[in-house]
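Reviewers of the previous submission asked for a worked example of the structure-prediction workflow described in the proposal, so we include one complete record here. The input consisted solely of the amino acid sequence. No template or homolog information was supplied to the procedure at any stage.
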Amino acid sequence: GKDHISGGIAQTDVLGIFGKYGVFLATRWGDSGSYITSAYNIYLNYDGKGSKYGDICVKAETSDIENMPVYASIHSDNEGRLHMIIINRNWDKEGIAKINIGGNRTYTSCTIYGFDYQSPEIRKMGEVNNIQNNYFELKIPPLTVYHIVF
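From that input alone, the workflow returned the following structure tokens.
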């Protein structure tokens, strides 16, 4: 599925799993294709300017692991940004992510980058500027990968 959204979703998901469980090394060979490239870049260059997902995994839980896995991280350099990867694997249903951020830091806004079944191009998908008490709800279209930066 290197040139299909299913491949992009699977690769994004496995990279999140590897980070969550501290996999030290994994290899891949062959042509990456458009969606596999996007899966790597959603972690390594989500804004086209070299910005990266954090290097310290933080707790992220979902009540629907089958359809909407979630991964989260922060940066060790203390820059304060929280990163969240949310995937909607569902072929035909929009997902509603009820995001409740724990910890002692207050977040009031975030920017969303992602790709979907329509295009492997990672692009800015929107912003949320009304986060209240570290909680908000986000609609995620079918077959979509979001990288949310707080």
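The mean pLDDT is 95. We consider this example representative of the routine output the project will generate in years two and three.
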